[in-house]
Amino acid sequence: LPSDVGMDYVPLATMLATGQLAEADQFTRDALIVLAGSKAKGRDFVYFTEVKNIPSTDLATIERLWTKFSGGKFGYSVQKQIWKKSKGDFEVWCNKIGWTTKDGEIERKKRWFGASEFTYDVKKAPKGHLPLTSALRGTSLIKELLNHPVW
């Protein structure tokens, strides 16, 4: 599995092939941190400005694995297609990929899921639901990933 930095993607392929989607999702997040460089690794998260440092070869490998083992249901390219159909409206996009839920107190208010509330089942999750990219520090990281030239 191709990598510009010697990353081993066999564990990711194995997790995806055996339906261990939560583990594959965590592997993907961890890989992005490593691929983004030493500063990202030191703080344990990726700044949106570091996305350009992530090698296209590695992102393409991650993407191929997610799309292959989900039957085309998951992956960044899938998320990007939905992003385009949502006309770049983050709330609309999140609703389409199942990243929000109705708040019990105010029906119209939306809140982010906790990590344990995501659907790690290829048959039950909405198209584009995975891989998860944190928006806790804002939406810029997701937007940069979706606009990476590899897609």
Automatic annotation (TrEMBL):
SUPFAM superfamilies named among the record's database cross-references: GUN4-like (SSF140869)
Domain named GUN4-like: residues: 3-149
Molecular functions per Gene Ontology: tetrapyrrole binding
Coiled-coil intervals: none
Secretion signal, residue range per the UniProt entry: none
Record CDD domains: GUN4
Name of protein: GUN4-like domain-containing protein
